[in-house]
Each structure stands twice: as structure tokens, then as C-alpha cells.
């Protein structure tokens, strides 16, 4: 998650069941976040053990899919409301109802008649979501790749993951009583679900048209294992730079990490693919330095506020990502842009190029700039190497240590397959002069799969023909059942016990 964190300490393999606070100790964000992670892990593991990989309550199972073929309009899916669990994660497809507004005329005692001029009654909101208006998918009818497959059959799947939300995206999280000069407080984690099609060719079925529900389910399970298997690994370390003796004595002379402050480095894949295609970006603040956008005018961006200090501000040469809610949910990377000019009085910055047309033009999607801290001169290229930046991001180079800054280095394992959004977190500490990263007995850094993004999938429907769907959901009933009626011997024992109680009460003398 992109949040201002010190580090993430939850490790399920350590079997911790609770975080215990001690008196007189410093309270850290990592402790509170680990307690939350422990509780979520326990609750979701229990739900998955009882329910299975996916399922919904029999009385209110959500995500029932109805195919709606279009003669003139595009094909569509009706997504019915209700609850559904995927790997223990609760997903709710119920469409919220709009609130009722106060009628000013009625409140003032005025009366109106039908036919008088006035605001028209709003249309009745739909009761269900559709493929095109589902809340976190942001499908675009103008993009052929977003449309439902023309070739049938195809599978409709539910994709679920989590992402962080800060006050930059949801201003309601900010406590205005603290004043505009104060930073925001806690962030949130949001469950994101999307109903998406999977073409039958991807499932590798021998006879898609005649496949049974069991065959489709097994093929989908194989597809999920392949789609979610980690394809890349990374290691991190801190090595004392060659020029360290020339640095002022701000840190210990023998320190391998030379930064003046504790940091949580985030290394994130920007564009996925093979090593020749993939790029990455990094931030020393876990990608949490963001600037809400008030207005976009060509390459000039007006910001709601600038950073509170030089460390969290924007400067000429910084690389930024122009982001909004739809961009984040789609997970399709766009070029990073360079800050060319900063207008402090006007709270404006000029970027090296105009942002892509589909991003940042709708205020309700809460556009903002996210700062990344790599530079084109962040590392020395090998002789004959290609350009260091590709669309503003660094090119992945496997099999060699790549320096970030202040002695922090990363290593991409050979033969990786990279996905956009995969990331690793690297805490760097001045007290130890190094980074926190697992090592083996010989103190060599271990290769690790990405910390996220962890996607979860469930099959919903198998669309075979016009207006024909095969329901692939699972349902479960409540555990509670009516108490069984007592047998004759139990009733006789209860009557005998009641008679004995009455006899004792009658034998007791009155006070």
C-alpha cells in the first residue's frame, strides 16, 4: 500500500496471535498495523476454511450474472447484489441507495402543484450494477479491449484485491479541525472487486462449447494458479559506496546505508513483461508523497497544496505519476513526467508533457501527482547500455546489483516475468547503517517474491450463447439449526426436577 509507514512487520509464518502493548514504551505504527493484519489473517483464514475458496450465503449470495446481448448497444452483464467471499475476503455487490434530500419548498410551508415549473424528479437509480458501470472497474466502451468477447463461450470471473486510500483520494478522511497546515492522519485499505471476462482460449479447454461445469471449474483453477504465481524475485542490501570517504560525517564512517534518515524504500514494477520490456520505479517514502490536483491546464498542474517541507515537496527534476482513481483501478501504467518548473505562489508545476487524455480530467476521480525518487543519473550505465529511462521509469536489469541511493542496492533474479504493480518494501535504518532484509546463514541476502499486489479470483458464470449463462457460484447455508425437541425421558426428568423443587419450597417454614 502507498502510505507513510515505518515498516510492515506481519509475518504469518511466525505464528503471532496478538500484539501486546507494554507500559512506558513508544507506540509505533508498525505495531498497530501488525495487530490489524493478525486479526484479518485469522478472520479470513477461518472464513476460507469454512466456506472454501469462494462462496456466498444461500439467502443473499451476490454476483449472480445475467448476460444482456445488444443488437445496437454493446453486450452487457447484469451484476446482481449480495455478498460473496473469495479466499475469505468479503465482497459486497449491493448497490447503495441514494439518500433523500430535504424539499425546501415543503420545509418552508409552500405547496406546489403538478405541472409547475421546477426541478424534475430524478430518475429512479438502478438496483444492480452492470459490467459498464461497476464501481471499481472503469471499463471504457470506446476501447475494444474492454468490451465483452464476441466469441462464445467465455467465462465471467470476479477479481478481488486491496489497495490503500488516503485523504488525497477521499477528503472525508481528513479531520478539518486539525487545520489545513496539519498532515492527514490514518489511511484506509479498500477491497476492490471487478467483474471481468476470461476468454475460453485462455482456459485451454479441449471442447469449450461442450464443457461441463466441473471441467470449466478445473480449467479456471489452473488459469488462476498461473495468473497469480509470482514470476519475479528481488533481493536488497546496503553496501558502503566507493565515494563514502568524501561524504561529510553525517553518519558513521563504517555505515553501509549512508542516508541521514530512516526510510521505507519501495521498489515497484511500472511496466510489466520480460526483463527486456519491464521497467521499475522507486521511492524512499513508500510512494506516499502525493499532491492533490485542483486543475489541469495543458502541462501546467495546479495543486491543492505543496509539501510541508523540502523533504516532502516537489522540485525541478522530480519524476511524478499523474494518478486518479480510475488509473489506479485499471492498473495500466502511463509515462512518468518530469517537473520542469515550480510556481510556488500559484501552487503550480509545469510538467515535461501533457498527461494522457484519459487521466485526471474528472474531478470526482480525485486526480493527484505521486512523486517517485529515482533519477536518470541514479546509477552509472554499463558500457554500451541503452538509455537509462524508458517512459520515465528505470529499465530492469537482471543478474547484477543496481544502486538506488545512499548505499541501497537491489538485485533482480534472472528469467523473471514482471507484472505492473508488483513491489518490494525495504526498510533502511541509520541506527544499524543497513537495510532490513532476510539473509541466510552466510549473511547473503535472500531472493523474495513481491510483497504485492495479491489478486484473488472466483468464477461466476459461463456464458455459452445469447441469453444463456451457466452459474458457477458456490453457496453455503447457516450453521445454526432449530434446537431438537426433547424425547420422552428428558421431559420426564424435567418434570421430576420441577416437582422436587416445588416440594422443597413447600417444606420450607415461612419466615
Question: Would you kindly provide a written description of the structure presented here, covering whatever features stand out?
Answer:
This protein is α+β, with helices and mostly antiparallel strands and 511 residues long. It is built from six helices and 26 strands. A six-stranded antiparallel sheet has the order 18-19-11-10-22-23, with no helix packed on it. Strand 15 and strand 16 (348-351) form a beta hairpin. Mean pLDDT is 89; it is low at 381-387. Residues 499-511 have a biased composition (Basic and acidic residues). Residues 100-128, 490-511 are annotated as: Disordered. InterPro entries: DUF6519 (IPR045392).
Which parts are unreliable, with pLDDT below 50 for 5 consecutive residues or more? 381-387
Residues in β-strands, percent? 25-35%
- Largest sheet, described in full? 6 strands, antiparallel
Helix proportion range = 10-25%
- Give the beta-strand count: 26
Order of strands in the sheet with the most strands?
Answer: 18-19-11-10-22-23
**Count of individual helical segments:** 6
Q: What is the general shape?
A: globular
Mean pLDDT: 89
- Find the structural class using helix and strand composition: alpha+beta
Q: How far apart are the first and last residues' alpha carbons, in Å?
A: 72 Å
Q: Over the alpha carbons, how many angstroms does the gyration radius reach? A: 29 Å
